Amino acid sequence: YSLDVNSECTFLVASSYENELILYDMRTKNKLPSLYGHNDIIKKVRLSPDNKFAITVSSDKSVRLWDISYRKLILNCTCNKSSVVSLYVNEAFNKVITGNIEGEIHVFDLPSKQYSKMDDVSSAVLDVTMSDDNGFICASTRDGRVLFYNLKANDNEDDDVVVAYSQDKVIQLEEHKGFYGAKYEYVARGEIKDYT
């Protein structure tokens, strides 16, 4: 269903419809023991740059961090109210952004094991990404919007979120004051369950 490979193309992780996280050593072309734990399809998987960890999101509403070396679940967060379909992990592998089919966007800080939920966007979040400086989140939604969240915004009312609309293959940009997440105001916060 989803896969990721390290930069040297020596290690690959893939998900299956059987809720399985499949591991491959590409040097030896051997399949390694799989990881199990999700109760539904794993929609996305990302591998850490050092090949020691993987993050998965699933239709079972969970976000999970796996220790590949020891073949075990480290962290599990079931904060989503619906199927998680989009996943972004920054290069440092310490910030995770997810989106689900009911329009929730969650931002996870792995070192602190904390997460925050941004305002709902009222449409399925199909993809999410973050700027290299962790200052902006961009999300695309099923209803054709592309949302940009300024995470560096303060209480200055001049800070805007730009929303792009796709109508007949034309992108129209509009500015919205105080739009969802413009000032990085969260509606919920929580802690990720630790399995270590």
Task: Describe this entry's structure for a reader.
By secondary structure, the chain is mainly beta. Helices cover 0% and strands 55% of the residues. It is built from no helices and 19 strands. It has strands at 3-5, 11-15, 20-25, 30-36, 42-47, 53-58, 63-67, 72-77, 84-89, 95-100, 105-109, 114-118, 125-130, 136-141, 145-150, 160-167, 170-177, 186-191, 193-194. It has a 5-stranded antiparallel β-sheet with strand order 5-6-7-8-19, with no helix packed on it. It has a 5-stranded antiparallel β-sheet with strand order 9-10-11-12-18, with no helix packed on it. The chain has a 5-stranded antiparallel β-sheet with strand order 13-14-15-16-17, with no helix packed on it. A hairpin with a 5-residue loop joins strand 1 and strand 2 (11-15). It is globular and about 45 Å long. The chain starts with a strand and ends with a strand. 33% of the residues are buried. The model is unreliable at 155-189 (pLDDT under 50).
